[in-house]
Queue: 2 jobs
Job 1
Amino acid sequence: MNNIENLYRQVIMDHYKNPRNKGLKGYPHIHLKNPSCGDDITIEANIENGVIKEVRHNGQGCSICCSSASVLTEVLSGKTVDEAKDIINKYFSMMKGEKIEDEEELEEALVYEGVSKFPARIKCATISWKALEKLLNGEHDE
Amino acid sequence: MFDVKKIREMFPIYQNHPDLVYLDTGATSLKPKCVLDKMNEYYEKYGVNIHRGVYRLSYEATEAYDEAREKVSKFLNASFSEIVFKRNVSEALNFIALTYGEKYLKEGDVVITSELEHHSSVLPWMKLCERKKATLRYVKLNEEGRITIDAFKQALDENVKVVALTYVSNVMGYVTPIEEIIKLSHEVGAKVIVDAAQAVAHFKIDVKKLDCDFLAFSSHKMMGPTGVGVLYGKKEILEKLEPLEYGGDMNDEVCLDCVTVKDIPFRFETGTPAIAEVIGLGEAIDFIESLGFDNINEHCHTLHQYALDKLKDIKGIEIYNKTSELAILAFNIKGVHPHDASTIFDEANICLRAGHHCAQLITKWLGVVGTLRGSFYIYNDYNDVDKFVERVKECIEFFSQFEGENNE
């Protein structure tokens, strides 16, 4: 069960059971779904003068999906848009199992390192991060 | 019971994955070597187009293709002209809605379906009803989630023109009392479309005995290749339908502003079909008949009962279909999202389906976000069930370590 234990770390399950920054406040948002598994996540962000003041999430799904949304809100709140884009790219590289420089910038999101061993779960771990990436690129849902 | 060791020797995937515990036949069955060989034989010995060339090889390919259609028609107790090849059941069922439904359904008419349906059985009719201002009516399922004759009678009236129901639910494994439903439907003049995708690998289907108007199944769920769906339609109904698609091979004579079309079934098949796959399906029919449906059923039933028995005292599992006729287990590990559980099984090489199984209506009816599904077939044995049950226990134990402080 080594790979499994590496995937389902205590931190992840804690964020799953006790999500941080959950519930929306009405900032610009992106809603993404994975219809094949039912993951359904909305990410909203309050971005002022190139700085992410607040990120929040809502939705449902598996533990990897929901917890990674919660972790994302903690890691990326307070970052500049450019810093956040850089961290998001690092996160995506980590999903592919690539070696990344300055991995400590990922902070708590580093616990998702184990996901790269489970290709079927990468979608779960990245759905909220993709939503935020869209927001940072100026897209948002009506 | 089959000698599974011998059966597995016929399925090459086990040579590449000796530890495979394949419990996802509900999604697609594994393929025996004889089917793969038959397709290769086409490509290697007479791999040319059908119905076109006047040379000998093309004649040979056409013969083999037609012979496969003949086999399918005998398999269902239909006639040659009543068998139309499509890509899969989804395409076949859409075809019926877009030809028969488009032609006959009118405003105010009713189409009966159920929450047990696969999306491909309900959505074509949902969209057609929207366009035609007809009503889509759902049979009320009983407390187990079954379609019953009583509930069907409640839903049936003179306005019902089409009944689109599954023969066997792909999530619950329940067998619909379809023969009686067909009789009742015909009394009010409604046509019945049977989705036999899950049924076809498990019992003999006789369309004459059923008296269904349309029926569809997929080759790949009965050990044949992917890419072929079979549509059966009664001759007198098919003859009145126009082609949905026009193009090569389906026409008779073409002039500047007119086209006449071929007889059924050819007018419904345009373009080069999946020749190798259709021929492979013919071989799969021979294979399944050589095993015998009685033996298949006995094998699956024995494993199913063995699994239910081993699971009955495990508290952390919730099984939704304990009375299922087919060897399908729809279940969840309590408190664990099906995708999280699925990964645990995957790590032990146990292939399960997780999610809504293209049947969101029954998932919603059950009131869950999704389920896990284990489906058993001829290449599964007691050892597979033991490994599965062991993993159920490990899964429960693994996730129990995270129980506790939960503010959700």
Job 2
Amino acid sequence: MATPQTAGTEAHGGAHDNLGFPPFKTETFASQILWLAIFFGLLYWLVSKVFAPRLTDVIEGRASRIARDLDDAAAARTRAEEAGVAYEKALAEARARAQSIAQARRDEVNAGVESRRKALEGDLSAKLAAAEAQISATKASAMGNVQAIAADAAAAIVERLGGVAPSAGDLDAALKSALKA
Amino acid sequence: MASPLEQFQIKPIVPLGRIGGSEIAFTNSSLFMLLVVGAIGLFFMAATSQRSLVPGRMQAFAEMLYEFVAGTLKSAAGKEGMQFFPLVFSLFLFVLTANFMGMIPGAFTVTSQIIVTFALALLVFLTVIGVGLAKHGTHFFGLFVPQGAPAWLVPFLVVIEVISFLSRPISLSMRLFANMLAGHIALKVFAGFVVSLGALGVGGILGATLPLGMIVALTALEFLVAFLQAYVFTILTCVYLNDALHPGH
């Protein structure tokens, strides 16, 4: 679409500018190649000696840093898992030990209670026996007193009925036979 | 009004004399080559001065460019291709910066000069031949013999392969040159329409909005082309370098 216009203006421009299509003017080639060689050479030197090594350094440095950090993180995680396992183990051991200590203590307490109970029972039975002995002694002495009272009563009855006080020997024999019956 | 081709005119700034009948001068073309290399140099100097683990904006951008070109090179030529990284990176940066710098109004577009793009393409071409011969000797010419072709067809295929190989520097340089040239001419032509229509009064000014809109659209397209052609030049360089490293394919 722009072709006729371009051709027209080219012809027009060409009339008082240098003749020809500027990029095809061979007389400018040597100069352009020379400067291109100088500046592109400079750019190549800068890129190959300065920029590319710097960028390679920083990018590879970052990659290795990230890899190292990931390794460190994996190692730390392994350590944490090991610590977790060790903690679980220690906890289980402590629990087992606590249980055995509690059991021993319970046994000890039970044994103490049992022995005290036995001692107490022995004590009580001894006291019971003593009390029983005392009761029988009291009973015996009471029985002796009953005999004396009975003898006195019998002597008084005989004296009132017979007028004669019985001798102590007769009275005693009579009481014994009566108590035996 | 200036011709659309005036922007491609080489104008001497400092004449330096003559070598073998050719005039040697520091021209506007040389100036913009210097500006391109200077801009790249200053940017990368600043971007890589810190070399920090967590990059700043400039370093991140420099690393992005590095990874982009390195990725392109590795995918086309494999890991061994990285020995050509400085060359490929320099080419990419030079072409990209020259293309973009040409988009500044009034600036000279270095890559719109056929001799510049041809010199760069020839550099790639000669590098491929030089490295190919140095690495593989005569096996390098196996590049021209397609594998698995019927024997009677091989002579024809070899001729075609040789022609296609020899035309590489021409196609590589022409593509970049023609794209930059055509884009800049189109922009200038539409800009010319705006000026000539605008001089015709109210109706002309209204009519001029049409080519003005075209310029806006074309400018956006040219920015895309500026990047795309730099990328195409780079990826084709990588593909050609791959032939130097692995001519058996």
